[in-house]
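Let us practice reading a record.
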Amino acid sequence: MPRLALAALLAAPAVTPALAASPPAPLQTAIGNPDWLHLSGLARLRVETLADGLRPGAPRDETVVMSRVTLMADIGDGPVHVIGEIWDSRVFNIRADRSGASLVGANDINTLEPVQLHVRADLGAPFGKGSHAVATFGRMVLNLGSRRIIAADDYRNTTNGYTGLRLDLTPVKDVEATFVYTLPQQRLPDAPTRVQNSGFALDRENFALQLWGGIALWRHAAGNLNLELSGFQLSERDTPQLATRDRNLATIDMRGFVPPAAGHFDIEVEGAWQWGRSRPGTSNAVPRAEVEAWYLHADTGYTFRGPWHPRLSAEFDVVSGDRPGGKYTRFDTIFGMRRADFSPGSILGYIGRANLLAPGLRLEVEPGPRTDGFASVRAMWAESRSDVFSQTGIRDASGQSGRFAGWELDSRVRHWLIQKRLRGEIDTVVFLRRGLLRDAPNAPPGGTVVYFSASVIAPF
């Protein structure tokens, strides 16, 4: 996109923002919406543009139009329900460069995919009065805990799907637990030409990739403090169709948090330790290494009383990167989300939970029941000066370019154009490159990265 056009878009009034935070209302059916059938869905159209991108070997500028349409059917009137959901995720206006490269990939396109098809059974109160249990079997999406390890991505045009078993338990009041054994779905097709042409292929799951574990939450463990503990095992091996990093990773995660409330301070601290074995890349020529990796997230804020409910918070994330010494120390976020903590993924996708040290400030506001927004600023360093900085692909193996990467300015505004029927969203990210992101041997020229997206979302 020409610079002047991009500047005009960025200067537009921020009154059209996105994404339904609450579940969509059921679609009324022609037969009077019987108790045993509920239909719901969502349609989203988004324009994204990136100017002066910094990823080595990738296009520097690209503007695309993305669409996502979902339709869910919930069949059942009693303790057993059958739930199915189809996602149709497409990208238009793909203009690959002369080498055929585009910022669009398999994470953006997935046509007519049955992401969910499962049976959910309410098992009643197996531990007596006050207890509850629900079992789920089949294809499903998962959002567990803070979603930093296991999530169904929402900003991205596609999502993460899992096939297997899930058991939700409430043994006593204020204690909840979830246990899962799943085969994560591999998104298909994955060949660039088929992806860019919106080719159709059913996503695949098999026992070459397994994810299992559990998470427990103790609400009001001490006053308003909630405590959470989780542990997950990821096992992966090569198949004839797919070369992998042969990961065998165990991750244990602990989290404590006091939710935001008007006139009060809130806090969240979460940390994870990861161990096992993995290859740094997918080549069999590189032997597997012992893994020791970690991350820490912390934020604290205060929500002011008043009509806009402003919340000002300080944030801090530090995530281990790889360094010399024989062990592999770069943290793997498994299937974690990024947007709640960092800037968007999609065709941007520079900042994630890997080799990062990032303190920052965030201001959130709700001018009214139909509008909310936030703005944040973060300074960013590499935790390891010799590893790839976060997910940018930029690296100085010698470490001579230092650790400071630059400043990130991130903002979002959302507004219900028609209450509960049509929502708009604007996301803007400006990345001021410094030090490592300018001086590393493979860093492309340039100083400022600008990302912009505008969405409209219609839940039904």
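A brief commentary: The chain has one domain: 3-459.
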